[in-house]
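Exercise 3.2. Students should predict the tertiary structure of the chain below and write it as structure tokens, then compare their answer with the key that follows.

Predict this chain's 3D structure.
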Amino acid sequence: MLTIPPSISAQLEAGTSTLCWCWRLTRPDGFKLGFCDHDQALEIDGLGFLPMARMASPDAETETGLAPDQAGLSLVLEDDRITLGELRAGVWDETQVELLRADWSAPDQNVRVQAWWFGAVAIFNQGCEVELLGREHRLERQIGRVFARSCDASLGDVRCGVEAMHANYPLGCDRAFATCRDRFSNTSNFRGFPYLVGNDVLIASPANENARDGGSRGLGG
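Answer key:
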């Protein structure tokens, strides 16, 4: 629930105010930057917020379900602490962007309106445009590896190890163990779990099997 300080609430109701927008950027490593659309620098919670008139306020769109809330933020890089090299290198990936409404005459009176995280970054000559993602986007991230029978590497990448000059490279790969073994002789780099049993094997009873010699069950080629 958004709690608005009484002083800010009164100004909003009056229609005239000394309010301004502030943006607090927090990188995953803890480094922070502050910007505002006021004509003078402000200090909030010990962080300086520098004037940056050309940083557009994002328009939040609330979506249903688990789809990430997204907003577009146009950011013109006027601060040398944000470099295009760092953006390209991923230093600013997953940076949190907090949108604050503050009273520039008393900056300690402020309220956090919304928060997003850096998504895709489109880099231009004089700046960049950042896709902002809501909290829910983290629920859709794949963390760690997926245990599956098929390989999760891409043909020819570092984890696969098959070079483009391989005679069978043009034939492609369907990520199956048999293909990796027979077409590329590359079983040592196979990144799947070909002997992972399926639900049919897990629910099968011993009476359903012809061979009861203690060997592995459900093995395919």
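Discussion points: The chain has two domains: 6-140, 142-205. The first helix runs from residue 6 to 14.
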